Amino acid sequence: MATTVVDGVEQRTAILSSLQGVWLVKEGETLETGYRVMSITEDAVTLESTADGTQTTLHLSNAN
């Protein structure tokens, strides 16, 4: 997870990986796997299927 401040507004970028590859994503972006990034919080990313609208929440973890 990376966070930057642009014009006083926090913008988060999540780093997601799967068997298909690694993506750096922001809210609103659509992945080639058929999911749209709905929200990114400090500890989770919510994706929505472009096929049927179902949502999946991925809880992020820290590798300590």
Describe the structure.
By secondary structure, this protein is mainly beta. The chain has one domain (2-59). It has strands spanning 2-6, 9-18, 21-25, 35-40, 44-49, 55-59. The strands form 2 sheets. A 3-stranded antiparallel beta sheet has the order 1-2-3, with no helix packed on it. The chain has a 3-stranded antiparallel beta sheet with strand order 4-5-6, with no helix packed on it. A hairpin with a 2-residue loop joins strand 1 (2-6) and strand 2. The chain is globular and about 35 Å long. The protein starts with a strand and ends in a 5-residue tail after the last strand.
Short description:
The protein is mainly β.
Spatial order of the strands in the main sheet?
1-2-3
Mean pLDDT: 89
Instruction: Please give the number of β-strands.
Output: 6
Regions with little confidence, pLDDT below 50 for 5+ residues: none
Quaternary state of this entry equals single chain
